[in-house]
Each structure stands twice: as C-alpha cells, then as structure tokens.
Write a structure and sequence with these properties.
Blueprint lengths: L4 E6 L2 E6 L28 H17 L4 H14 L4 H14 L2 H13 L3 H5 L2 H10 L2 H10 L7 E6 L6 E7 L4 E6 L4 E6 L2 E4 L10 E7 L5 E7 L24 E6 L5 E6 L9 E6 L5 E5 L4 E6 L4 E5 L7 E6 L5 E6 L3 E6 L5 E3 L11 E7 L2 E6 L6 E7 L6 E8 L11 E4 L2 E5 L22 E7 L2 H4 L8 E4 L19
Parallel strand pairs: 23-27
Antiparallel strand pairs: 1-2, 3-26, 4-5, 5-6, 6-7, 8-9, 9-10, 10-11, 12-13, 13-14, 14-15, 16-17, 17-18, 18-19, 20-21, 21-22, 22-23, 24-25, 25-26
C-alpha cells in the first residue's frame, strides 16, 4: 500500500517526502547527530527509533525555519541522522541550491547517485539547473548517465475499467493465471490467456476494498485482505442484493474459491489499538496466513486449523507492508515502509531487523516476493518508483546489494504489489492512489486509464541461477533476455 506524499515549503523551497519517510541504517549517535533545542525527540535507547525520531523532528523544524541558513542546518541534521533516507538528501539538495552551498549540494548529489536515485535530482528542473552550475564535469556526466530510465518488459494484461484502482496481485505459474485485487470495485479479477474474469466479490456486502490477494499452491483458492476504505465504491453496480445487504464491510481475511468466486470463509481480523488496515499477505508452507497491518503496525498470523490469530508486534514497527517467505519455511521477511526490513521467525515470532548496507536504501518497499538469494520488491516510496532485487548475506542479517531491475516514470508511474510468474516478474504498473483525494473523490484533471499488469524478464542474478556476489547499489548492467512468461504481452484482454 503506497503512502501518500507530503510536501513542506521552507523559505520558498518545497521539500517533498513520503509521509512515512524515515529509514535508518545506524544510530544518530553513531552518525554524530545530537538533539538540541530544535529537536525534542524522546530517547528510547533503540538506535532505529531514536535516529528516526531525531531526523523527523529536524525535518519538521526545517518547515518552520525562519531563514534558509537555519533550514539548511536542520535538513542536514535530518539527512545525517537518517543517512539512507533519500527524501532528506533531496531536501538538502533543494535548500543547498537556494543557498548556493556547493559543498552540501555536492554531498547530497553524490549520496543520491550512489543510491541509484539520480532521477530524484535531475527530474526537478531547478535541481537540474543547480547541478549544472554546482557540480564538476565528471560527476555531472555520471549523474546524467545514471538518470536514464531502465525500460524493460511490457504489458501482460489490462483491466479495461479506468476506475478499477488495483492494489494487490498474485500469479499462479502452473495455470498461467494472474489475479488482481481492486480497492475501488471491491473485487478480484483473474487474467488467463488474454481473458479477464471478475470473481464478483462485491456481491457480499461484507467485502470492502480488497488490498491483497494470494493464491494457494494448488491454484484452487485465494486468500484476500479487505477492509472499509474511503476509496472503495460503496454503491457499486457490481453488488447483488443478498441477505448480507444489512452488513457493513469489515476488516477481514477472506478465502475465495477460484472457479466461481464463492466466498468460503471470512475471518475478522483481531482487535487492535485502532482500526485494522490490512495490506499484503503471504501463505506459509503449513497453510497458515500472514497479514500485515499498516495502520496498527502489527503482523497478524492466522492458523486455519485451530482458527487462531497470533499478533506479532515490535516497538520498531511503524507501517508494515509486504511479506516474503524464505524457502526454509521457517522465516518471513517483512517490509516496514518507514524502518526497513525485518526478519520474523514463524514459530517463535521473534523479530530481528536486517541491517542496511551503506549507499543503498530499503525504505518505501511495498510488495515483496522471494527470488534467488533475496527478494524482489516494488519500491514506490522513493522517486521515481522502481522495481528492485535485494540480496542478503547467508544468515539474513544484512542487505548485501540492491539492484534496480526497472524504473520508468512514463510506463511505470505508480507500481504496487507484484509476484514471480515463471521466469518473469509481474506487477501493477499504474495504481491510482494519487488519482483520488482524501475523501475518495477523483482529483480534478486526472486522466484515468485502464490498469496495466506489467511483466519484466528477470536476470540470472534475481532468479538464483548465478552465484555472482556483489556489494552496494547498482542498475542492472543490461536488459535481460526476453522471458517466456512475458510472451503473452501481445495478447489483448477483452
């Protein structure tokens, strides 16, 4: 689930960042950041939480700064406390450009380039002009080269309804079927061999916005997450009058039969400290189901055999999103949009944060899928959004590398959750979070278009067919060969 962007104006300079932006790699103390009269974050003793708090407080204070010089110092404090948060470095570049501070601008530009986020700098006309004026020839040339789109793959399927508002997606390789969940229309559609079939979940009034969908290994049933949401269609013409009309949508885990869309089970989510907002989910090898709650910051573990919920919480959880299951069957990798990646033991529910690697960023990750020696993720919390493969060390204790597989603001403007599909990766290319306002109404001037399911061939490094080890962050060296699973992109859905 993509977080909305927030923008602050500082002395005429717009600072843009995700509302959940704050992903550290080390403590603020280790980076030399300290609190002062301008930062009042409470110290907890946890380096992740404390560093994030220092950075957020400095960032907010920068929005209230009375001068460019004061704002520059505060934004630099935020970037130093949370060094792998690209939004802070982009903000530092903006304020440094206004202040004509060559040293700080170059530092911000070098950091963004190392993260493979050169487009965040050169995509802004003012920053592009500043880069030309303040950077030396060689760094400027490298920045421009690294800012080029990484275009690969193509459209596998389309959902013609321009207001479908897709979010979740899963694929069943054996049957060649892709499932896409709709927030607006409260349903799931199945794509197979060029045809789209609506499972018509909205016939049941208990179904709200459908966020996540995962298909069971046998391909016969789906598990979906649903909840009331401002963006769902309350008077959908898809709804059929049933005895459930008096019921309201509930936050729940839903089991659906693929053949006819029949709802086999609706399991209300356990009560939390606030309303539950389920996001992504994953089906474990034992048939249990994991669900992330992005609002109440918890990992929910459903055991169908005993009809029992386990609720996993951790003080470092802030906005949980995607889940990937490790092939060992005992471990899950969970993405927190604000605080990075966590490793969870499925038996004990022990939580360990996966350490970041310098010059990479794992903030803003949405859907996760295990692939090769790590995960493929939709990283829509950075600008521009991109598809990445993240590798780990053997113990799953530290990020080893972040490879950018695809990045193209034109064809992939708003990607969300994806899945492996044979030798390829499929995902929603143009979700519509930015198309609706806080009241769930279409934004004026928005041009709506059919939902595109995009398919990209995967390079050997992302599938585990090579043992090459790399460190750091990089673009894929070349466009990978065409994948057989993407060959259906020439078919048009009705």
């Amino acid at each position: 689930m993509r977080a909305h962007a927030s923008r602050h104006r500082v002395c005429g300079v717009v600072l843009a960042a995700s509302c959940c932006a704050a992903v550290p790699t080390s403590s603020a103390v280790a980076q030399g950041a300290t609190t002062s009269a301008t930062t009042s974050a409470v110290t907890t003793g946890d380096p992740v939480r404390d560093s994030a708090a220092v950075a957020r407080e400095a960032w907010r204070a920068a929005a209230r700064a009375g001068s460019v010089a004061e704002a520059l110092a505060l934004v630099e404090r935020a970037a130093t406390a949370w060094p792998l948060q690209p939004a802070y470095w982009a903000g530092l570049a903006r304020v440094a450009a206004q202040a004509s501070d060559t040293v700080r601008f170059r530092r911000a530009a070098a950091t963004l380039d190392a993260m493979n986020l050169a487009p965040a700098l050169l995509g802004d006309p003012r920053l592009a002009t500043a880069a030309t004026a303040l950077l030396e020839a060689a760094p400027l040339a490298a920045l421009r080269a690294h800012a080029a789109p990484i275009a690969t793959g193509g459209v596998l399927a389309t959902v013609d309804d321009p207001h479908f508002f897709a979010e979740g997606l899963d694929a069943h390789t054996a049957s060649g079927t892709v499932y896409v969940a709709s927030i607006r229309q409260r349903t799931v559609v199945a794509w197979h061999a060029g045809r789209v079939r609506d499972l018509q979940l909205a016939r049941d009034a208990r179904i709200g916005a459908v966020f996540g969908v995962r298909v069971a290994a046998d391909g016969r049933t789906l598990w979906c997450t649903t909840a009331p949401h401002v963006n769902m269609q309350r008077d959908s013409t898809r709804a059929v009058a049933t005895r459930a009309d008096s019921m309201r949508p509930v936050a729940a885990l839903v089991q659906v039969r693929v053949d006819d869309g029949r709802i086999l089970d609706i399991v209300p989510l356990p009560r939390g400290t606030q309303d539950r907002l389920p996001g992504d989910l994953a089906i474990a090898a034992d048939g249990s189901v994991l669900v992330t709650d992005s609002d109440d910051a918890a990992l929910l573990h459903w055991h169908p055999a005993t009809r029992r919920w386990d609720v996993v919480t951790d003080a470092r959880f802030r906005s949980l999103q995607g889940i990937a299951l490790v092939p060992d069957g005992r471990t899950a990798i969970v993405a927190d949009y604000s605080h990075g990646l966590f490793r969870v033991d499925l038996a004990t529910h022990a939580v360990h944060r996966i350490a970041d690697r310098p010059a990479t960023t794992v903030l803003g990750l949405d859907g996760l899928t295990w692939s090769g020696n790590g995960i493929i993720a939709v990283q829509n919390g950075v600008e521009p959004a991109r598809i990445v493969h993240i590798g780990f060390d053997r113990a799953l204790q530290q990020v080893a590398h972040v490879d950018v597989l695809a990045r193209d603001a034109t064809t992939l403007p708003e990607p969300t959750i994806g899945a492996r599909f044979g030798d390829a990766y499929v995902f929603v290319a143009n979700s519509q979070w930015s198309a609706y306002d806080a009241q769930g109404q279409p934004r004026a001037g928005t041009a709506f278009s059919p939902t595109r399911v995009w398919c990209i061939p995967l390079p050997p490094t992302a599938t585990g067919s090579t043992t090459t080890t790399r460190n750091g962050s990089r673009n894929t060296a070349s466009v990978p060969p065409s994948a057989r699973s993407c060959s259906a992109s020439k078919l048009a859905s009705p």
